[in-house]
Specification:
- The complex is a heterodimer.
- By secondary structure, chain A is an all-alpha fold.
- Helix content of chain A is 75%, strand content 3%.
- Chain A has a domain of 197 residues.
- In chain A, β1 and β2 form a beta hairpin.
- In chain A, α1 runs antiparallel to α10 and α2 packs across α9.
- The longest helix of chain A is centred in the first third of the chain and has 32 residues.
- Chain B is an alpha/beta fold.
- Chain B has one domain: P-loop containing nucleotide triphosphate hydrolases (Rossmann fold, 3-Layer(aba) Sandwich).
- In chain B, the strands form two sheets. A six-stranded mixed sheet of chain B has the order 6-7-8-3-9-10, with helices on both faces. A four-stranded antiparallel sheet of chain B has the order 2-1-4-5, with helices on one face.
- In chain B, β7, α7 and β8 form a beta-alpha-beta unit.
- In chain B, α3 runs parallel beside α6.
- The longest helix of chain B is centred in the last third of the chain and has 16 residues.
- The chains are: A mainly alpha, B alpha/beta.
- Chains A and B meet through α6 and α7 of A and α2 and α3 of B.
Chain lengths: 288, 248
């Protein structure tokens, strides 16, 4: 192995990792703050990818125009689901929400399958060419994914740290009843969390679409790893989910230097298992 | 200001409040006394809406007349002017003091000036908080947490504050300063419904008091009359004549 290969895979790992982080951060917000396990979160990621594809097919000429349209579309779908299906069962035992959101995920998956067919869709790379850094040559779009993903993750993080809604989100996570008793409309805070989580997942799917192709099961393929990333990062810990996402991307990418893809995936699960055993409360326990 | 009539509350199947009736006049300091587990804290939780009323009415006097808030969510009651300071303070441990104050304050649409004044008023009452603004809630002492819990509702400009066991776990000197704050708030025209284990301290600062037993109000009267009514105090609180004689 040369240093070039390692560097290449580290960069690849970062681009995977950013996409994992976009999915996992939404799950950790919903789970940690609303106590709500959304099994259909992977489908929001999948819909983000289909949204970009659809926008391009119907004539939106530019990927960077299609992306925000897809995100808005997915947020509308996500909030629609929350209002109709999820809100009535919100305070039920976890098993109910688990099954209901799993059902919603299946419906979305089968619905997409019925409408768009089983075959993978492809969209052209919105940014072509290679970036040359000395001896190192790397696809420009992957660098764009890393940059755009990290900037949006940081922006959402800043929102949670600084804005009024951010303070409310953290207050609700720490003591929901007391937040309500201080006059904060908690259900509106939940709507914002749900919208933010949906948007992050959709951005992940839209950025991933040109790299990995688009299919109805792409969400269910990543959701398990994303949930484990959430556990690694510490439940409800936004920064933890980002670090966990990048970590898992790196393990898979660097592992692929020596291992078959399925073996690299297994290695990633192994690393997660060890981390969970060593730090059951997550990498950054406590801090929110 | 506040009227509670025939309030019944259940925790699951257990019937905790059996028809509580009480009233708090505008600007009055009213104490709710009784032994452990008679339903004092539950009454306050029901008034702010953290536990549902199965039966009865909770009415609040607002600028536009009496409002039935029995089935309104807690944040609406808070917006109508009920402030709630819970027994265990329930400071947000991972938010700074400033953020703890902002949780409710950011809900109000205030001019920057009105906002500053609201904060200054709270710091005037509790100067110790002003130096702690950037520290997380979890590192505050018990006394500072109690001050923050009161300041957190005070900045919202409440009409009535529900104060649950403010002296619990505090050193005697701090108990005095918290009770002084209660008296000052009452003088500023904020009504207070005070639940207190330390009945004699409460009778010092309140105008009226209700005695509770087994989920009901069993006795009520002015603080002076209750201090004189030794049998009632002994029956519901276990306070003896010697305790009263020994109190300041």
């Amino acid at each position: 192995m040369t240093a070039d290969v390692l560097l290449l895979q580290l960069a690849n790992g970062l681009s995977f990792g950013v996409i994992f982080a976009l999915i996992a951060s939404g799950i950790t917000l919903m789970w940690g703050i609303m106590d709500f396990i959304n099994m259909s979160h992977g489908e929001l990621y999948m819909l983000g990818a289909y949204g970009v594809w659809l926008a391009l097919v119907v004539g939106v000429g530019n990927f960077w125009l299609a992306l925000p349209l897809a995100v808005v579309g997915v947020v509308v779908i996500g909030l629609g689901l929350r209002a109709t299906v999820l809100r009535p069962i919100f305070d039920r035992p976890p098993l109910h929400t688990l099954l209901a959101t799993y059902g919603v995920g299946l419906i979305l998956q089968q619905g997409v399958l019925a409408i768009f067919g089983p075959f993978a869709k492809e969209i052209a790379l919105p940014v072509t060419g290679l970036v040359v850094l000395g001896p190192f040559r790397y696809p420009a779009y992957r660098l764009v994914v890393i940059a755009v993903g990290l900037v949006l993750i940081a922006a959402a993080g800043l929102l949670i740290q600084r804005s009024t809604y951010g303070i409310w989100i953290r207050a609700v996570a720490q003591d929901r009843a007391m937040t309500a008793a201080l006059g904060v409309p908690v259900s509106r805070v939940y709507t914002v969390v749900f919208g933010l989580g949906s948007a992050l997942a959709a951005i992940g799917g839209a950025l991933a679409a040109p790299l990995f192709g688009i299919g109805p099961t792409m969400g269910s393929e990543v959701i398990l790893l994303a949930f484990i990333v959430v556990m690694i990062g510490g439940l409800g810990n936004y920064l933890g989910s980002v670090i966990g996402g990048v970590l898992i991307g790196e393990v898979i990418a660097v592992g692929a230097i020596w291992l078959q893809p399925t073996q690299a995936y297994l290695a990633a699960l192994g690393v997660l298992l060890v981390l969970l055993l060593l730090r059951p409360a997550g990498l950054l326990r406590g801090a929110r | 200001m506040l009227r509670v009539a025939d309030l019944h509350v259940f925790y699951g199947k257990s019937h905790v409040l059996w028809g509580v009736d009480l009233e708090v006049a505008p600007g009055a300091v009213v104490a709710l006394l009784g032994r452990n587990g008679v339903g004092k804290s539950t009454t306050l939780k029901a008034v702010i809406g953290l536990v549902p009323a199965r039966q009865g009415r909770i009415e609040l006097e607002t600028a536009s007349g009496w409002r039935d808030v029995t089935h309104r969510p807690p944040w609406e009651r808070a917006a109508l002017g009920i402030g709630y300071v819970p027994e265990d303070r329930r400071i947000f441990p991972h938010l700074t003091v400033r953020e703890n104050l902002r949780v409710g304050l950011d809900r109000l649409t205030l001019t920057p000036k009105a906002r500053r004044q609201a904060l200054e008023r709270a710091f005037e009452l509790f100067p110790a908080l002003a130096d702690q603004l950037d520290r997380p809630g979890r590192v505050l002492s018990g006394g500072q947490q109690q001050m923050l819990a009161i300041a957190r509702v005070l900045v919202l400009g409440p009409r009535i504050i529900l104060l649950d066991e403010p002296s619990q776990g505090l050193a005697p000197l701090l108990v005095d300063s918290v009770m002084d704050a209660v008296v000052r708030l009452g003088r500023e025209g904020i009504a207070i419904l005070l639940v207190e284990q330390n009945a004699l301290a409460a009778l010092e600062v309140c105008g009226r008091a209700y005695l509770m037993d087994k989920g009901r109000v069993c006795h009520s009267g002015t603080a002076a009359a209750l201090r004189a009514d030794q049998p009632a105090l002994e029956r519901t609180l276990g306070v003896t004549a010697a305790d009263i004689a020994g109190s300041p």
